[in-house]
Amino acid sequence: MYIKNKTIIITGASKGIGKTLALELAEYSCNLILIARSENELLEIQATILKSKKSNCSIFVGDISNLSFLDLVVSKTIEEFKQIDFLINNVGIGCFGSIQKYTEEEFYSLFETNVKASFFLSQKVLPFMKKSKSGQIVTIISDVGKRVFDTGALYCATKYAQEAFTSAMRMEVRPFNIKVSNIYSGLVDSDFHATRQGSKEHQYWLKTEDMAKSIIFVMNQPKNVVIDELMIHPISQEY
Which of 61, 76, 209, 226 has its CA 20 to 30 A from that of 198? Predict the structure, then answer.
């Protein structure tokens, strides 16, 4: 298992895909660094992981778009674990409706969380990956990084931006043996949507476990193999 004993940063780790991924990865004797705003939820996940005694787990509670906070996360991770093997850019928020209804606050909130956070956290881990000539950055983008839909102008714009900078980054860091993988998911049963996780409307959607297993598959490839992109949908959803 190529992910065994690796140091892994996961953003948006307090719920949904991030939480499920953290709990799945805890089975592989990893050093997990979990980031989110929700302290109580992170503490519960950390307690579960540490109780199993299979993996280490550190948590960081803060604003993912704050660059000083990102500096703290990276410096503390290097101080404790000496390296960063994987960054999972998972955090994301949504806002939907007619273009005429968006506010300036909503505009900046989406771009700061969905784009700025993943851009600058990637920037800050890269020097350590370059030094070791290894590592992987995985970004959970959503399939709307490849398509658009009515009422999704602002959200889609942030996902297209993520797709653009991560794809350019892939070209830039490949000579350093650093992998960059983008995962484009369809509908996932989580609290991201207007209806809550487990709702009847979600019964045929992807589960967070489906996503976690797919992400681990992308991560767990030999050194000479990189999955640049993975598009994943429930069979019930037309692309």
Answer: 61
